[in-house]
UniProtKB/TrEMBL annotation:
Catalytic activity of the protein: L-arginyl-[protein] + ATP = N(omega)-phospho-L-arginyl-[protein] + ADP + H(+)
Protein name per its UniProtKB record: Protein-arginine kinase
Listed GO biological process terms: phosphocreatine biosynthetic process
Encoding gene, per UniProt annotation: mcsB
Stated role: Catalyzes the specific phosphorylation of arginine residues in a large number of proteins. Is part of the bacterial stress response system. Protein arginine phosphorylation has a physiologically important role and is involved in the regulation of many critical cellular processes, such as protein homeostasis, motility, competence, and stringent and stress responses, by regulating gene expression and protein activity.
Chain ranges passing through the membrane: none
The organism of origin for this protein: Salibacterium qingdaonense
InterPro entries found in the cross-reference section: Arg_Kinase, ATP-guanido_PTrfase, ATP-guanido_PTrfase_AS, ATP-guanido_PTrfase_cat, Gln_synth/guanido_kin_cat_dom
Chain positions of motif RDXXRA motif of the pArg binding pocket involved in allosteric regulation: 339-344
Stored Pfam families: ATP-gua_Ptrans
């Protein structure tokens, strides 16, 4: 039953409780901490019996956590899931593609609202992830530090006085922290300003990735911006640096939206309502086009051109129309052309439900 709850809905419960700060541009904030246990070899070197011991030790400790809501974490073992169930969890950003590929001794501990995800025996023994609505980097760091402090009372971390937390990948050594925000930046893309901004972001020690992190392509004008440096600065300074850059990007995106509405309002209205009409009526919809049209509709909602539809529709349909979810609802394997037909049908049905709820 627990598994079905986690894979049955595209929108995680933590995303439904209202908009967060600057949520017209920043969809979510994530803090991820990489940690390893001192007494065991890292997962990339651990023999099967060692990996199983790590899993049992860590899962037992995390099972005793009581979150602020009074709820506990639930454990899903990777070798108990089929390939599509794991794919759905990846599409919801609850596990990484790396963990999904592990055939043995991998697991994830999830909070009921899916705002806390703790991957076990991923690239590192422990990958703790916390998710927040909108732009909440300081709040995310504070909560993650509390979770980390609780864990450190139970588990002895692999730690070096000079280097900090030791990790499988050298790029995570030090704080072991990746702080990131998911941003919707259609106006900066349309005005071609993002191409000018990206090199400056990289020079500041930050990295811009697609919706599924490292190696993924940007879809639907969604970009994940995170720190690249984990060594040499405390977590608070890293977060403050990222916060300053994201604040400037938010300002630039808003200015670009205002400029487009002043200079090209008719063009913007046509772009938004054309995509809205196509989504409501299409019978075939490829994945790339769906993300582009959904981005237009979300922009139209934020600009108050489209009324009566929740901004969550972008978050929800961006996930709901991915291959894993389409396969889950079809309850059978689908060819690419069958996925395109089902994607279009699902979008039409979701749009109709939104219309009915507004009436």
């Amino acid at each position: 039953m627990s598994l079905q709850r986690f894979i049955s809905e595209a929108i995680s419960p933590w995303m439904k409780s209202g908009p967060g700060p600057d949520s017209d541009i920043v969809l979510s904030t994530r803090i991820r901490l990489a940690r390893n246990m001192e007494q065991y070899p890292f997962p990339v070197f651990a023999p099967p019996e060692m990996a199983e011991a790590v899993l049992n030790d860590t899962a037992a400790e995390f099972s005793s956590i009581r979150l602020q809501t009074g709820s506990s974490l639930e454990r899903l073992n990777m070798d108990d899931l089929n390939s599509n169930e794991k794919r759905v969890l990846v599409e919801k950003h609850l596990i990484s593609p790396y963990l999904a590929e592990r055939s043995q001794s991998g697991a994830v501990m999830l909070s009921p609202d899916e705002s806390v995800s703790i991957m076990l025996n991923e690239e590192d023994h422990i990958r703790m992830q916390t998710l927040f609505r909108g732009f909440q980097l300081s709040e995310g760091l504070d909560f993650s530090n509390k979770l980390d402090d609780w864990t450190e009372e139970k588990i002895t971390y692999a730690f070096d006085e000079k280097r900090g937390y030791l990790t499988s990948c050298p790029t995570n050594v030090g704080t072991g922290m990746r702080a990131s925000v998911m941003m919707h930046l259609p106006a900066l893309v349309m005005t071609r300003q993002l191409n000018r901004i990206l090199p400056a972001i990289h020079q500041l020690g930050l990295v811009v990735r697609g919706i599924y992190g490292e190696g993924s392509e940007a879809q639907g004008n969604l970009f994940q911006i995170s720190n690249q440096m984990t060594l040499g600065k405390p977590e608070e300074d890293i977060v403050e640096d990222l916060k300053g850059v994201v604040t400037q990007i938010i300002r630039q995106e808003r200015m670009a939206r205002d400029a487009l509405m002043r200079s090209s309002r008719t063009y913007m209205e046509d772009k938004v309502f054309r995509s809205f009409g196509i989504l409501k009526n299409s019978r075939i919809m490829e994945s790339k086009e769906a993300t582009e049209r959904l981005s237009d509709v979300r922009l139209g909602i934020d600009l108050d051109l489209i009324k009566g539809i929740s901004g969550n529709i972008l978050n929800e349909l961006m996930i709901l129309t991915q291959p894993g979810f389409l396969r889950q609802y079809a309850e059978k394997e689908l060819r690419a052309d069958e996925r395109d037909v089902r994607r279009a049908a699902l979008i039409r049905e979701r749009m109709e439900l939104e219309k009915q709820s507004d009436e």
